[in-house]
Amino acid sequence: MAAGFDPSGRLPDAFTNAGTSSFTTFLSKVAPEMLPGRRPLPPGMAADMAPHATTIVAISAAGGVVMAGDRRATMGNLIAQRDIEKVHPADAYSLVGIAGTAGIGIELMRLFQVELEHYEKIEGAMLSLDGKANRLASMIRGNLGAAMQGLAVIPLFAGFDLAATDPARAGRIFSFDVTGGPYEETGYDAIGSGSLFAKSALKKRFRAGLSMDDAVRLAVEALYDAADDDTATGGPDLTRRIYPVVMTATAEGTHRLTDAETAAIAEAVVSGRMENPGG
């Protein structure tokens, strides 16, 4: 029987009384052992004990934002998984991508999704985009102990700002450091082991006011460039038909490109690189 439940099966008072709008705060009171950063860990570094997710890119475009991630997870010099999904909707108008320790990252991302849904149900309103970024920052900060032992998670957060005065410039991107510090990025950003190469590609080709279609193509090209120089980043796998996960956030909400749409873009990028490998 779970701790805190009486034999009659009635829920504890914490579940029935008016509580906080933060699900993470609620969980820290009711079941703190379920939070990723509150679990006891053995001493020493543990970075090589778990698969790591790699490269995510985000690009602001006219009318929204694009986020894309490769599909590879690594464990040391081995490929742990070829088709992991690192980019997900955080809520109806925002996206989150993860790099770092894959298991903790996925758990943190799901907890963040519940956090935003819980807030909206309790308060009857959606958090602002800045508020969402700050909530994610506090959750990353809660994982600091594990991060110092090598189990770090660094997310990338982006979304459509419903409060923006100019819908064409409403796509915003936030990056974070391992201590939870949030930073708004201008135009584009990338995280993960291949981020240096992805950002170098984006730096040369990004232009303010890109159409969503052009931004999607640029995101896939940046991931290709990252995979070209970083062994931990997976490029389009034409043999297994494994392609990047590409999502958009606009005034209409979040949208994931279909496998067929992503395949067409990835195959066009690969075809172009056959003639010009450097892009």
Automatic annotation (TrEMBL):
<dbReference type="InterPro" id="IPR022483">
    <property type="entry name" value="PSB_actinobac"/>
</dbReference>
<dbReference type="GO" id="GO:0004298">
    <property type="term" value="F:threonine-type endopeptidase activity"/>
</dbReference>
<protein>
    <recommendedName>
        <fullName>Proteasome subunit beta</fullName>
        <ecNumber>3.4.25.1</ecNumber>
    </recommendedName>
</protein>
<comment type="subunit">
    <text>The 20S proteasome core is composed of 14 alpha and 14 beta subunits that assemble into four stacked heptameric rings, resulting in a barrel-shaped structure. The two inner rings, each composed of seven catalytic beta subunits, are sandwiched by two outer rings, each composed of seven alpha subunits. The catalytic chamber with the active sites is on the inside of the barrel. Has a gated structure, the ends of the cylinder being occluded by the N-termini of the alpha-subunits. Is capped by the proteasome-associated ATPase, ARC.</text>
</comment>
<dbReference type="GO" id="GO:0019941">
    <property type="term" value="P:modification-dependent protein catabolic process"/>
</dbReference>
<comment type="similarity">
    <text>Belongs to the peptidase T1B family.</text>
</comment>
<keyword id="KW-0888">Threonine protease</keyword>
<dbReference type="InterPro" id="IPR023333">
    <property type="entry name" value="Proteasome_suB-type"/>
</dbReference>
<dbReference type="GO" id="GO:0019774">
    <property type="term" value="C:proteasome core complex, beta-subunit complex"/>
</dbReference>
<comment type="pathway">
    <text>Protein degradation; proteasomal Pup-dependent pathway.</text>
</comment>
<feature type="propeptide" description="Removed in mature form; by autocatalysis">
    <location>
        <begin position="1"/>
        <end position="53"/>
    </location>
</feature>
<dbReference type="GO" id="GO:0010498">
    <property type="term" value="P:proteasomal protein catabolic process"/>
</dbReference>
<dbReference type="InterPro" id="IPR001353">
    <property type="entry name" value="Proteasome_sua/b"/>
</dbReference>
<dbReference type="InterPro" id="IPR029055">
    <property type="entry name" value="Ntn_hydrolases_N"/>
</dbReference>
<comment type="function">
    <text>Component of the proteasome core, a large protease complex with broad specificity involved in protein degradation.</text>
</comment>
<dbReference type="Pfam" id="PF00227">
    <property type="entry name" value="Proteasome"/>
</dbReference>
<keyword id="KW-0378">Hydrolase</keyword>
<feature type="active site" description="Nucleophile">
    <location>
        <position position="54"/>
    </location>
</feature>
<keyword id="KW-0645">Protease</keyword>
<dbReference type="GO" id="GO:0005737">
    <property type="term" value="C:cytoplasm"/>
</dbReference>
<keyword id="KW-0865">Zymogen</keyword>
<keyword id="KW-0963">Cytoplasm</keyword>
<keyword id="KW-0068">Autocatalytic cleavage</keyword>
<keyword id="KW-0647">Proteasome</keyword>
